[in-house]
Amino acid sequence: MTVDTLVDPRRTLGEAVTQAAAQDERVVVLSADSGLSSGFRAFREKYPDRYYEFGIQEHGVTGVAAGLATTGRIPVFAAIAAFVTNRNFEAFRNDVAYMAQNVKIVGRNGGMTYSDLGPTHYSLEDYAIIRMLPGVVVLSPQDPGEIREAAAAMIAHDGPVYMRIGGPAIPDLFPQEKFVIGDGRTIRHGDAATVVTTGTITPQVIRAVDQLGELGISVDLIGMPTIEPIDEACIVESVRRTGRVITIEEHYVRGGLSAAVADALARLAVIRDAIGLPHQHIVTGDYNALLAKYGLDAEGLTARLRGILASG
Amino acid sequence: MNTRELVTEATLARLNVLRMIRAGKSGHLGGAFSCIDIVTALYFAVLRVEPSDPADPDRDRFLLSAGHKALSQYAVLARRGFFPEEWLDTYGSVSTKLPGHPDMHKLPGVEANTGALGHGLAIAAGMALGLRAAGNGGRVFTILGDGELPEGSNWEGASIASHHKLGNLVAFIDVNDLQISGRTADVMNMEPIADKFRAFGWRTTTIDGNDIDSILGSVRYASSDPSAPTAVVARTTKAKGISFLEGTLASHYWKPSADELRAAESELRAASGLLVGKE
């Protein structure tokens, strides 16, 4: 991959929603002083009457989203992931999930991609807390094509959706194809273990798995752009063959993809390892340096995967 | 429906609340009775709603931000024909359509799942935005409790309604002066309430919230200028209508003895000019 092939995921999101809005006039965008920085500048220019600004107040905007949805609109509310899952959690839980409203909430700059801004701006528990809400789909697409298609699928889906994307520009990984909510994607085939990953960390994981391959260790690599509902069949089929599973995520291990996979495998006796962020407040710095510090860059992952697999 | 008939309806609605409390053995009576005259006036004289078509997209919306006052809405919805009055007798039973806080997916006529306080105003603002965009003339009415005003989310909702000039939104503040821990003024004094809403850009009016004509007057006031949302500061009496409960904290969540329940029913029947009837 080269730098000039990298794409800003927020821009991709904004383009995809704008495209969906052209086909469906019910789509409106809500901003908590966050729309322009979430990729919706073009949307606002094209559809000024369908772009609502509310200033910095995520709880209120989430309630408004639910109210708008009761009148048949499809509100898309994008802001910093930490603020649209934590600050507004009760509104997300009651007004969106319990009321079962057709609201789409996008958390951008998820994980620790706001690497210079610190724990207030990290989102390392969003998978865990949002997948606890009954009826809410949780998406974490892995490359620009998946973001584009996931955004279309999110809007086509009748019900509440949370989607996490990152911030830094990301590479194309896969040919763009229709996104089916709940489908995992087998990225590499192997037999030493099943590695399951999701979201912005996937490019690192692919590189790590390829480096393992060069060392003669082949694993099944499953990319999981839908965390809820998780593709249970895909995981079980692979793990039955490989006998063990390792999850990798840019999220605390507790409650995240790891827990979703563990739930799916609860009835299978397999040795399981989970790689994610340690359960502590995360330091600041250059994003790639943070990935390296926490062993989530390709090199760190390679070493950790080797270590796990060597332990038998 | 004239004022006298509306007053009678409000009393019959109060009797429906007692019917539910008889079935469930307890309930949030105090707040339900402080706001029930407003709920009655809205459903019988203001709201553009059709019980046979509760999902009509062009309908007006009513939601209780103070969701624990659900008994008032259930009582009036039943009177208005949204569901059979026999359902009132399921209050408190497993899987009832009338839970302790309203659920839009269970009961026709309920517009939002409230209960956690401080949510209603933002939801109502979203509804008002959506109805305005739809251009159907739809209006949104909500009732907040004075005790929930410290929730910051109310003021998020208040700023939204004002900034977006939601003239089709009316918020009644049911000021009964009491909340579960004591006098609202002592727990967290949010007075002067009208001034606060005015400062947020709302039109305001202060009324006797247990007086039907005052309530209808406030709706006319709200309709007279669609340039801004209207806050109606409704001064009310907790447990209004039951003399031995009025203004008491015990009425907030009432667990009556059989004698107390009978006494309450007798007083309401007498007030409505109905015969003291069979149990």
Automatic annotation (TrEMBL), chain A:
- Taxonomically, the superkingdom here is Bacteria
Q: Which Gene3D superfamilies does the annotation name?
A: 3.40.50.920, 3.40.50.970
All residue ranges annotated as the Transketolase-like pyrimidine-binding domain in the record: 7-172
- Which co-factors does it depend on? thiamine diphosphate
What InterPro entries does the database record attribute to this sequence?
PDH/Transketolase, THDP-binding, Transketo_C/PFOR_II, Transketolase-like_Pyr-bd, Transketolase_C
Looking at the keywords, is rRNA-binding present? no
What is this protein called in UniProt? Transketolase
Source organism per entry reads: Georgenia subflava
Per the UniProt record, the lineage of the source organism begins with:
Bacteria, Bacillati, Actinomycetota, Actinomycetes, Micrococcales
Automatic annotation (TrEMBL), chain B:
**What Gene3D superfamilies does the record point to?**
3.40.50.970
- Please give the SUPFAM superfamilies that the UniProt record associates with this protein: Thiamin diphosphate-binding fold (THDP-binding)
Task: Fetch the InterPro entries from UniProt.
Answer: THDP-binding (IPR029061), Transketolase_N (IPR005474)
**Residue ranges occupied by any Transketolase N-terminal domain in the UniProt entry:** 13-266
Its cofactor is: thiamine diphosphate
Q: List UniProt keywords, sorted A-Z.
A: Thiamine pyrophosphate
Q: Would the keyword Ion transport turn up in this protein's UniProt record?
A: no
Superkingdom: Bacteria
Molecular functions per Gene Ontology:
magnesium ion binding
Give the UniProt family note: Belongs to the transketolase family.
Q: What is this protein called?
A: Transketolase
